[in-house]
Amino acid sequence: MIAAYDDYLSMPMSLSAEEMATLHKDLADEIGDDRDSLELYEELIITATRYMIFRSNWLLWSNEEKRKRDPDRTSCHDSLIVKFNQLARYLQIQGKPAAWRDQLGYEEENRYFRKRIGDFGCYLVFVNSVLAR
User: Residue 17: how many CB atoms within 10 A of its CB?
Assistant: First the structure.
């Protein structure tokens, strides 16, 4: 199976590349050059990169491999959500709206919001990856 972007867009509560780019811009604008924000963002990117490794291999792994790695993937996903929440809370304390976090949604409201948060984390890693050329 060759994965395609259109396949992703047909999934429930997916985010288009344009939506993710807008969220990313909003996030970057709020962070600005604030050292503490940048440190929290770096921690988020490190965690997102670890999570992206699970995501990018998921379609390649056998069911047995998925069962074996699922607890670690879930733990990493949980950590990614925590990193997003920490950054949003810090920015809010600094008087920023952090509306991007609300747009990603909260898993307590709908389980697909958890997936959206993971999607956005992978998008951020994608941007970092293509900028590292």
Answer: 12
**104 CB neighbour count, 10 Å cutoff:** 22
Q: Provide the token pair at 133.
A: 């050329």
Whether 52 contacts 125, CB under 8 Å = yes
Q: Which of 48, 39, 106, 115 is nearest to 76 (CA)?
A: 48
CB atoms within 10 A of CB 13: 13
Sequence-distant (6+) residues with CB within 8 A of 86 are: 40, 43, 44
Contact status, residue 12 vs residue 22, Cβ threshold 8 Å: no
* C-alpha R_g of the chain: 15
CA distances (Å), origin 117, targets 33, 53, 78, 106, 124: 24, 15, 10, 9, 11
User: Tell me: the pLDDT tens digits for 69-105?
Assistant: 999 999 999 999 999 999 999 999 999 999 999 999 9
Among candidate residues 120, 128, 129, 97, the one with its CA nearest the CA of residue 19: 120
**pTM of structure:** 0.95
Inter-residue contact 90 to 40 (CB < 8 Å): yes
